Amino acid sequence: MSTGTVRVKHSFLFPGKGLRRQLNLFLPGPWSDPLPIHCWAIEHDGRLILIDTGEGSHAKNGPFARFDVRPEDELPGAMARAGLSIDDVSEVILTHHHGDHVDGLPHVRAPVGISQRELAYASAAFSSVMRKVLRQPFPPGFAPTTFALEDGPFGAFAHSRKVTDDGRIVLVDTEGHTPGHVSVICIDDEGRHVMLAGDVTDTLEQLMSRRADAVAPNPKVHVETLETILAHCREHPTIYLPSHDPGSAERLAGGITVGFDS
């Protein structure tokens, strides 16, 4: 489901090195074409699980992001266009705390979960200051419960958590974009791993290029996570779906898995 679009600085998608990696975000530069702001709904075993909640029409532009979200683009409209009702959502899982992933929460009455490490990072002084600088306050009523990834390895990932008893929906640790970022892997009927990747990368191209993004606190850790994802994709046919990749919807519809050159 798409909740509007966002344009970002070219330096956000292709960051510089060293101090320029983040400084360039605040300097004049070219902008991308509009990128989708996706969130995801999983129907499984009588449950409707929402992964992130998208952006709201109140979103304010920042130094490196320009939003285009109409009221009808917000979560209730996005779900209705997908033939779903927001009243049927059984739970929400947040990949991380950034506004374009949490601002739809006021529309939802279901329980909301976020990783312990992510909420701790979001509550730290630095994150609070950056929310003010970027004009991205938490939405009203932001009070998620926390979870830990305590179920051991899953594929190439060292830390995971089962969402469903049958193990077909699993959370995995994808630290990088933020320290507590998680991704969600759903195993479809053909055995493919559908990876709802949040902002672990902006695009499939970024994953294949093993390129840390412009906001990751620790670029080295981010690259290590990308290597882990690629290792998992080699072990398991994986449909890789970042939230802002214009190609995600087509890959999901076509069942297109990550390919590697021989």
SSE layout:
Layout lengths: L1 E7 L1 H4 L6 H4 L11 E4 L1 E5 L2 E5 L13 E4 L6 H7 L9 E3 L5 H4 L9 E4 H8 L1 H9 L11 E3 L12 E3 L6 E5 L8 E6 L5 E4 L7 H6 L9 H17 L2 E4 L6 H7 L8
Parallel strand pairs: 4-6, 6-7, 7-8, 12-13
Antiparallel strand pairs: 1-2, 1-5, 3-4, 9-10, 10-11, 11-12
Radius of gyration: 17 Å
Q: Tell me about the largest β-sheet.
A: 5 strands, mixed
Q: Could you name the CATH homologous superfamily?
A: Ribonuclease Z/Hydroxyacylglutathione hydrolase-like
Total helices: the number is 9
Mean pLDDT: 95
Percentage of β-strand residues: 15-25%
The number of distinct structural domains comes to 1
Q: Kindly report the CATH topology.
A: Metallo-beta-lactamase, Chain A
Flag low-confidence runs.
none
Helix content: 25-40%
Shape: globular
- Name of the CATH first level: Alpha Beta
- What's the N-to-C terminus distance? 34 Å
Strand order of the largest sheet: 3-4-6-7-8
Task: Please write the string of helix (H) and strand (E) elements.
Answer: EHHEEEEHEHEHHEEEEEHHEH
Q: Can you walk me through this structure?
A:
- With 262 residues, the protein is an alpha/beta fold.
- The chain has one domain: Ribonuclease Z/Hydroxyacylglutathione hydrolase-like (Metallo-beta-lactamase, Chain A).
- Helix content is 25%, strand content 22%.
- It contains 9 helices and 13 strands.
- It has helices at 10-13, 20-23, 75-81, 99-102, 116-123, 125-133, 204-209, 219-235, 248-254; strands spanning 2-8, 35-38, 40-44, 47-51, 65-68, 91-93, 112-115, 145-147, 160-162, 169-173, 182-187, 193-196, 238-241.
- Strands 3-4-6-7-8 form a 5-stranded mixed β-sheet. It has a 5-stranded mixed β-sheet with strand order 9-10-11-12-13, sandwiched between helices. It has a 3-stranded antiparallel β-sheet with strand order 2-1-5.
- It is globular and about 50 Å long.
- The model has no long low-confidence stretch (mean pLDDT 95).
